[in-house]
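User: Okay, second chain of the day. Same drill as before: sequence in, structure tokens out.
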Amino acid sequence: MKALGIIAEYNPFHNGHAWHVQQAKTVSGCHGVIAVMSGQFLQRGEPASFDKWRRAKMAVLGGVDLVIELPAAFAVRSAQYFAEGGIRLLDALGIVSHLSFGAECDNLHYLQVAANSASDEKMISQLISNMKQGYTYAKAFSHSVGAATGLGHTMLSSPNNILAIEYLRGIRKFAPHIVPVVIKRRSSNYHDKYIENEFASATAIRKTLEEAGCINKPLTRSIPISTAEILQDALAHGYGPVQFESLASPLLYLLRTLPVNELEQIPGVSEGLQFKVAASALKASSITDLLGCLKSKRYTATRLQRMLIHILLGTKKQDMNLWINSGPLYARILAFNDCGRDMLKEIQNKSALTVITKTAAILNTRKLNSSNMTSLEKMLALDIKASDIYALAIPNPCLRFGGWDFLNSPEYIQGAAGSECRA
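Assistant: Same drill. Structure tokens below.
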């Protein structure tokens, strides 16, 4: 079986995503589509607007055949580790032949030139030097790679192009046999805040959804009917949209009570930042206030948000370093259709990864509180904790209980669109 891999967040799944899936299938010749999707927290250091099970269902009804969770250990990371985590997980499944991603630049040669340059030791040295001068990573990256390749700043500073370059670097490093398939994005620009046509940005869709509080006419133009139905039901029952600001109280509590030596062990905290974080937490009354105190040329809002999520999760640098070396240690299934079920059988035959359909079969609540866990169990425990903390921000107070990962099973969506699978 030739399977196509996609690394995504689907926050939420929209028309641009559906178009990408169909185009990628056509270009690659693959019939089965596997999406590795972020769970409750995202790469930019924010909670997803809706939980991972609902977003996975949107994806399967929108054309994806199998959705597997990208562990939080890789989902809430910089573009490099996010991309590497997704690629290593897809490769370890044993059936993925292609990886597709969307970008503003669909010239694979230019992207490959940039990816090769970004791995060069001289360029990396220049990148570090630029960041020490106060440049953000994106700006330092575009200047360094642009100087080495002659490629334009606009191309190299686009978030989707940067991620595409990281995918190519990850393929080269971990899975050179996987064929990259770049699809030119049809949606609006990444940061666009308003819906102007049927291919709107996820940012615009979320903004419209938050302001309207319902599925209005602009939204129906930009998302599949199946997504609209899932979102409308979620809104009616108070499952979302989840806001980062809703986690302000538990976060500020942690920041005001954790010793600075413990803050120093959190991923993203360096160069004495722990002292500024602790001092700022005493002044701030919201996450917006806190970010305002901490943000600088060196520390962008996105980098700081990832740090704050890791503080909530209690992630330690030591564990992160171990997981960077090991890569994802399991394939946790969120949703699938008929084709996805066929692929799961093949994965179980070909992959050495642990395939998880029931959380308690791998890690029960008694072991969860133990100090004697394997690296796999610690990685899974982080996903479980992510759901328990995420639940605290759900709009409906009656839904803020814990244990979601033990209560929810993968959803089998029989006869979903695109479910025919051929070897």
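Residues 244-321 form one domain.

User: Thanks, on to the next one.
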